[in-house]
TrEMBL record:
Lineage: Bacteria, Pseudomonadati, Pseudomonadota, Betaproteobacteria, Burkholderiales
Highest taxon above the source species: Bacteria
Protein name: Ammonium transporter
PROSITE patterns assigned: AMMONIUM_TRANSP
A matching Pfam family: Ammonium_transp
Subcellular location: Cell membrane; Membrane
């Protein structure tokens, strides 16, 4: 989903002089988070500790794989039906894509060195604690009954809100609002979005942690909500602009898929249709009307799609939850608690991280480097 899905999705929307840069962001994020995850991240997110953070028993994945006393592969208490190594790897994919999403918010002007520091710090200080709160059974949100099947709060709200903070703190691109900055190759974007769509079926279905009926239903409602999001974005854009864009279609699909993520293991087809349709409209308005009104430069609409879609999906989980599907229930109020805390925590810690990174290496390239493009200025290479 991150490589090549997100890398291609973002690459098509930036200007040609920055296409390698934004793809490199996805690749380096994959590498950084992989190492941090096996060293410390997994243990702090998915082992018992306090309700705010896990313990140290899986640092460097110590004790993983084989227990001599039983002669069996280790399993996580969260996923006892699969080898723990599979659970580690599966959860790693969530940990990777979440900060990778943020890179679209400050595309085309951030230093590569600043990105590397930001990704490492954000992964450990924002993603890991929130994942523990939601998905560790003794975590803070889990104890309060907040439902998030596959990442509405953990992935999308945290990344979307952090993206908005980052876009504001890094600052607008030179010429933003005064000159056109059209996507350079939407074919890449459509291919990337398609890979994300297919990959997301595994993302949401896999969160059942079993090959069962609930996993199958999660896949089905994900497909339905994605289609509903694409069509509702298309409809409102057609009415407002007089033409349905292909970029709008795939953006609407992502809006629907983001919104169904927290609900996918808890709702039926009717709920999926409603969640996807509402998300498509809400995210369209967020990425156009709200963005224009507030004037921030979120290059690839991380906030408009992921934060707004995540909020819509998380809140509507409280409306459409079916207890017989997931064996649990919730309310809009409980879901709002999770949404609010996640947004405030992610925003505050992101501000602190960016402040520190700015003091250490500076956040953005010079105006001359930005005009040349980050491909040549930061990486010494270009796309012909």
């Amino acid at each position: 989903m991150t490589i090549p899905g997100l890398a291609l999705f973002y690459a098509g929307m930036v200007r040609r002089k920055n296409v390698l840069s934004i793809m490199g962001h996805s690749v380096v994020t994959t590498c950084i988070v992989t190492i941090l995850w096996v060293m410390i991240g997994y243990s702090l997110a998915f082992t018992p500790g306090s309700m705010y953070l896990g313990g140290s028993e899986r640092f460097m994945l110590g004790g993983l794989v084989f227990l001599k006393e039983t002669g069996k592969l280790t399993v996580s208490h969260i996923a006892p039906t699969i080898p723990e190594s599979v659970f580690v790897m599966y959860q790693m994919t969530f940990a990777i894509i979440t900060p990778a999403l943020i890179t679209g918010a400050f595309a085309e002007r951030i230093k590569f060195s600043a990105l590397i520091l930001f990704i490492g710090l954000w992964s450990l200080l924002v993603y890991v604690p929130i994942a523990h709160w939601v998905w560790e059974p003794a975590g803070w949100f889990a104890l309060h009954g907040v439902l998030d099947f596959a990442g509405g709060t953990v992935v999308h709200i945290s990344a979307g809100v952090s993206g908005l903070v980052a876009a504001v703190m890094v600052g607008r691109r030179v010429g933003y609002g005064q000159e056109a900055m059209p996507p350079h190759n939407l074919v890449l974007t459509v291919i990337g979005a398609s890979l994300l769509w297919v990959g997301w079926l595994g993302f949401n279905g896999g969160s059942a942690l079993a090959a069962d009926g609930r996993a199958g239903l999660a896949v089905l409602v994900t497909q339905v909500a994605t289609a509903a999001g694409a069509l509702s974005w298309m409809a409102v854009e057609w009415l407002r602009r007089g033409a349905p864009s292909v970029l709008g279609l795939v953006s609407g699909a992502l809006s629907g898929i983001v919104a169904i993520t927290p609900a996918s293991g808890f709702v039926d087809i009717q709920g999926a249709l409603a969640i996807g349709a509402v998300a498509g409209v809400a995210c369209y308005l967020g990425a156009t009307v709200l963005k224009s009104f507030l004037g921030y430069d979120d290059s690839l609409d991380v906030f408009g799609v992921h934060a707004i879609g995540g909020v819509v999906g998380s809140l509507l989980t409280g409306v459409f939850v079916v207890e017989s599907i997931g064996g649990v229930t919730t309310t809009v109020g409980i879901q709002a608690f999770g949404v609010g805390i996640t947004a405030v925590y992610a925003a505050f810690v992101t501000m602190v991280i960016l402040y520190v990174v700015n003091k250490l290496v500076g956040l953005r390239v010079t105006e001359k480097e930005e005009a040349e493009g980050l491909d040549i200025a930061q990486h010494g290479e270009t796309v012909s």
